[in-house]
Structures are given as structure tokens and as C-alpha cells.
Write a structure and sequence with these properties.
The structure holds 2 protein chains of 2 kinds. By secondary structure, chain A is mostly helical. Helix content of chain A is about 75%, strand content about 0%. Chain A has 11 helices and 2 strands, in the order H-H-H-H-E-H-H-H-H-E-H-H-H. Chain A has helices at about 1-30, 40-60, 65-90, 100-120, 145-170, 170-180, 185-190, 195-220, 225-240, 245-265, 270-285, and strands at about 125, 220. Chain A has a two-stranded antiparallel ribbon with strand order 1-2. In chain A, helix 2 packs antiparallel against helix 3, helix 2 packs across helix 8 and helix 3 crosses helix 8. Chain A starts with a helix and ends in a 14-residue tail after the last helix. Chain B is of the alpha/beta class. Chain B folds into 2 domains: about 1-90 and about 180-265, 3-Layer(aba) Sandwich (Rossmann fold); about 100-180, no CATH class. In chain B, strands 6-7-8-3-9-10 form a 6-stranded mixed beta sheet, with helices on both faces. The longest helix of chain B has 20 residues, at about 130-145. Classes of the chains: A mainly alpha, B alpha/beta. The interface between A and B is medium-sized, with 21 and 34 residues.
Chain lengths: ~300, ~260
């Protein structure tokens, strides 16, 4: 039973990270129907910034959780700026262009950012300090769930609650929902749609940066290529849950995380991706719009 | 009688789509206190005309001038729709375009947001001022819903409303942006006679009580002849007539456009 619980909580942790990144994909897709392939790179940049800031903080004598917080804040600001700029230079000029052109622009930006970090930083794996301390009160259950997992879970849950409140309760959230449902009508009720799109990229990038910091600190290393795999997994989670749907991204992330965790635990860790993508195929056959996705009616 | 204050002045508006001239140098004015109507057979270019005025299309030629009372004249050509809305011009659509997955109240509130000041950060932090502002928006929105008779449905999803009510909700949402000129694209389309009669009253109420000028596209001749003056008639992109309901009724060109040419067979 302990083993099951361990896998369950491991999957939950992993899944919540996928969900955090998947939210960025799904929110952008919901508004401008673009798969932002450079989203994984934003996550990677977040992790790199956190590494740099953590290094600086350590030199100046900060320690423990305060380093994590400072590094995360820097990563969020930096990644948000990247997300904002990305939209402005790579996607906005193509608004109204065929979907394919935008997609190619996204892939181009993904390759560009990877290589930029490769050249500006290093092709090697860099060790990432474990910024999440071991809590004493977690000791009795440490064989099932560690302090890192706890911090990751708490952070993602809080972030998602804040995001939900933002979308449901605030004026900005309302404007985002309106833009998602009918962009040109949103303009006609006076919403500055361009600003809402920018904001969506900023929020998505901030979430990716949080994910980047947590994962890097958990796994203990970063390099320029980590964004690719994280991006593919999170994209899978978004599609699984129904791309465009915010609760769908969370559910998709969790389902993916559990599938991988249980497959690795009960079968073999070599097969976790086989199960994960096998599940994706299965769900797309049974429910093409994803778990919580709505089949869009094409208006004529 | 003193010259009435022109709110909207459109001069020689032309809109080409490739080789197709959808609107051909149409001029039209809407003055204060008026309910003007734009009529014409299907495909005459009426909706294209609306789309040019509200910033969805940038016209090929011509001027669209807005003369708000006590403010400078603004040229609307090429402005984005959200800027046009901010300047006090709102519209509804021929096919209903509500935010279907939002509540009735939210649909109206969202129209109001462009009139509020609080920026992104303040609204995320929900300071006292923001909450107060939000409260005011809710109150104004309720008033509008009362006006169109939908206050009881405030918390329903917009998509669950009956058709006629959805049309009225669209009008309430447009009103929430605080316009001085309202463009209604076939507000009575698909309505039964009773709903049309109610709409008739609603439009007059908006015109009289709220002092909002109205320009409407409509096929329901009874509605048009009852409430609007002047009437502009378009056919094949061109304006073929304008005048009072009586003048329009008697105009041979209009009769021809609607009923076909009389032949001496």
C-alpha cells in the first residue's frame, strides 16, 4: 500500500508540474488557436535564470528557502518578459496569416531560443542546487513523499487557485474569457484584445517559469534542451485534457503524471513514455476533443 | 428650425473586396435624437457599411466622421473596433454574438469595463477602489438588464436564454459601453410579431430616455416605417434613396428595388 501511495503522490507531483506548463499551452491556444511551440523554451529559460540568480544569492550569503523565492521571482519576471516579446515579434505580425505560418514561426522561435541558450550559456548539463530544504516534520512520511514533492504540490495548487480566481473573478479574467469566446466581438465591446493576448502570454510564461524552477531544483540539473521534452509532455497533457480548456490542462497533466508514475513503478521506467503516449492515442480515438474539450462547432 | 447636430457623418464611403465593390460611395448622416434606418434587399452592402463604421473593415475610400457633443470631431477610418467603441459608438450583430458561456450579467458587465479605469495590477490586487468600481458596474448592469426586461435571468448562462431575450441582451451589452450612437443590425430578425412589438418599444425607449441616437438595419418594414426617420435605402452597394417613411414608400426606385421593375406586359 505504501508503494502504491508513493507512486500516487509521485505521479501527482509530476502531473502537477505538467499541468502548470500545460496551462500556458492551453490558454494561448484558447485565445489565438496557436500551439506555442516555444513555450517549453520559456520554461527552460526560467530554469536558467533561476540557476543564475540562485548562484548570485548564494554568493551574497542568502540560504535555503529565501534563495528559492528570490530565484523564482527573477525567473518569473524574466520568463514573462520573454513571453511578452515572443508574442510581440513572432506572433503578432502574423495575426490573420494562415495558421500554418504562425505554427512555423513558433517552431522557429523554439529552435532559436534553444540555440541562443546553447551559445550564450553552455551545451553541458549544469548542476542545479537543491533549493528546497528537507523539512523536519516530513520525516515520518519521508519514505513515501519528500519535502520537495510537498513544496511542488503546494506551489502548484496555490498557483492554480490564484489563476482560477483571476479568470473567474477579475475584470481581466472576464476580458480573457470574452476574447476566447469571440475575439472580434470582444473588440466591439471595447476590450483591447492585443493587450489581453500579451497578458495571456505573460501569465503562461510566468507559470512555465515556476514549473522550470521547481523541476530544476527537484531533478538537480538543467541544460538548453530540457524545454523540449517538458514542452512535449505538457503539450500532450493539454491535448489529453482538451486543448483550450483550463481545467482540462490540469486534469490532463495529472492523468499523464499518474500514468507515467504507475507505468514506471509497476512495469518498467523504460516504458513510461510508451504508456503515456499510448494513453494519448487511446483518448484521442475515443474522445477526439480531449477529456474536457468541447468539439468546436464550425460556424459557416 | 435650427439645424440638428450631426453625430455621425459618413461621406462617400466605398469598400472594395478585390474586384467587388460592396459599398459604393454611400453618404449618410445620423443626427441627435434620430432613429435612422438603413434598408435594402439582401446583399445590398448594409452590413458591410456597418463593419466599416465600427472598425471591422478599413474602407477603401471615404470619410467616417464622429461628432461627439462638446468634443472634437474624430475620423474613424482604420481605427480598431475597441477604439471606436471607446469613442461612443456601439453595435449589435445580425447573427447573435453573445459570450455564450458567460452569465447574462457578465455579458453586460464586460461591456462596461471599457469605461472603467483600473489597470491590470490594481484589478489583480483588488484594492478597495477596484471593489467599489466593480460594485458600481454590477449596479449599472442590473439597471440595463431591467431596462431590457432580463433582470430575472441575470445569473443564467447567455446561451440558455430564448432567442428574443438574447437579442435584447445584445442591446443591453452594447448600451453598457455607454454609447451616444447605437448601430443595430437586424434587431428584429427571427422574432415573432409580439417580440417585434416589444423591441419597437425598447428602441423608442432607448432613443427617448437615454438620448442615444440609433441607426438600424432592418427587413421588417413595419418596424422601420413605425419608428424610424430618416430612412436610407441601399441596393447593389449604392444609396438609391433617402427621406421620411412616406417619401420612401412613394419612391419608384425603392419600389422597383423591392418588387422588381414594372413591365407593361
Amino acid at each position: 500500500m505504501d508503494y502504491f501511495l508513493e507512486l500516487f503522490l509521485g505521479g501527482l507531483t509530476r502531473g502537477s508540474i505538467y499541468a502548470l506548463i500545460a496551462l500556458g499551452y492551453t490558454m494561448v491556444y484558447g485565445i489565438i488557436q496557436l500551439i506555442n511551440f516555444a513555450h517549453g523554451e520559456i520554461y527552460m529559460i526560467g530554469a536558467f535564470v533561476a540557476l543564475i540568480v540562485a548562484g548570485i544569492c548564494t554568493i551574497y550569503g542568502f540560504a535555503g528557502i529565501s534563495v528559492l523565492v528570490l530565484a523564482a521571482i527573477a525567473a518569473i519576471i524574466y520568463a514573462s518578459a520573454y513571453g511578452y516579446t515572443l508574442e510581440k515579434i513572432a506572433y503578432r505580425p502574423l495575426r490573420g496569416a494562415p495558421r500554418l505560418s504562425q505554427l512555423i514561426s513558433a517552431i522557429g522561435m523554439s529552435i532559436f531560443l534553444q540555440n541562443y541558450v546553447l551559445l550564450a550559456q553552455t551545451p553541458d548539463f549544469l548542476p542545479f542546487p537543491s533549493l528546497i530544504p528537507e523539512f523536519a516534520f516530513m520525516e515520518p512520511v519521508a519514505h513515501i513523499v519528500g519535502s520537495s514533492e510537498l513544496v511542488i504540490l503546494m506551489t502548484t495548487v496555490i498557483t492554480m487557485i490564484l489563476l482560477t480566481l483571476l479568470i473567474k473573478k477579475t475584470k481581466i479574467g472576464k476580458a480573457m474569457r470574452a476574447t476566447q469566446q469571440d475575439m472580434s466581438m470582444a473588440r466591439l465591446v471595447g476590450i483591447n484584445v492585443d493587450r489581453i493576448i500579451s497578458l495571456t502570454f505573460v501569465i503562461g510564461s510566468a507559470l512555465a517559469a515556476i514549473g522550470g524552477v521547481l523541476v530544476a531544483s527537484y531533478i538537480g540539473q538543467v541544460n538548453f534542451y530540457i524545454g523540449f521534452l517538458a514542452g512535449v509532455k505538457a503539450f500532450t497533457a493539454a491535448v489529453l485534457g482538451g486543448i483550450g480548456s483550463v481545467p482540462g490542462a490540469v486534469l490532463g497533466g495529472l492523468v499523464l503524471g499518474w500514468t507515467e508514475s504507475f507505468a514506471a513503478g509497476y512495469v518498467s521506467s523504460d516504458y513510461e513514455d510508451v504508456f503515456a503516449f499510448g494513453l494519448l492515442v487511446l483518448i484521442l480515438i475515443l474522445r477526439p476533443a480531449g477529456l474536457l474539450g468541447k468539439a468546436r462547432k464550425q460556424k459557416v | 428650425m435650427a439645424e440638428k447636430h450631426k453625430l455621425l457623418e459618413v461621406k462617400g464611403l466605398t469598400m472594395d473586396f478585390g474586384g467587388l465593390r460592396a459599398v459604393d460611395s454611400v453618404s449618410l448622416d445620423v443626427c441627435e435624437g434620430e432613429i435612422a434606418a438603413l434598408i435594402g434587399p439582401n446583399g445590398a452592402g448594409k452590413t458591410t457599411f456597418f463593419n466599416c463604421v465600427t472598425g471591422i473593415y478599413t474602407p477603401t475610400k471615404g470619410d467616417i466622421l464622429l461628432h461627439p457633443k462638446g468634443l472634437d470631431t474624430r475620423r474613424l477610418n482604420g481605427l480598431k473596433p475597441n477604439r471606436v467603441t471607446e469613442m461612443g459608438l456601439a453595435r449589435t450583430f445580425q447573427n447573435i454574438r453573445l459570450f455564450a458561456d458567460m452569465t447574462v450579467l457578465e455579458n453586460v458587465m464586460i461591456g462596461r469595463h471599457c469605461r472603467t479605469k483600473s489597470g491590470i495590477f490594481r484589478s489583480i490586487l483588488r484594492s478597495k477602489g477596484v471593489r467599489q468600481e466593480e460594485q458600481e458596474i454590477v449596479e449599472v448592469s442590473y439597471q440595463l438588464l431591467k431596462k431590457v426586461g432580463l433582470a430575472d435571468f441575470a445569473n443564467e448562462f447567455a446561451k440558455n436564454l430564448p432567442y428574443g431575450a438574447q437579442r435584447r441582451l445584445e442591446i443591453a451589452r452594447a448600451m453598457a459601453t455607454d454609447p451616444f450612437l447605437l448601430l443595430l443590425d437586424e434587431p428584429a430578425a427571427g422574432m415573432n410579431p409580439q417580440e417585434t412589438a416589444e423591441l419597437d418599444q425598447l428602441i423608442c425607449k432607448i432613443s427617448e430616455q437615454d438620448r442615444i441616437a440609433i441607426l438600424l438595419i432592418e427587413h421588417d418594414m413595419k418596424l422601420v416605417m413605425n419608428i424610424s426617420n430618416p430612412i436610407y435605402v441601399m441596393e447593389y452597394g449604392k444609396k438609391i434613396a433617402e427621406g421620411s417613411p412616406q417619401q420612401i414608400k412613394d419612391n419608384p426606385k425603392v419600389i422597383e428595388a423591392y418588387l422588381g421593375e414594372e413591365t407593361d406586359a
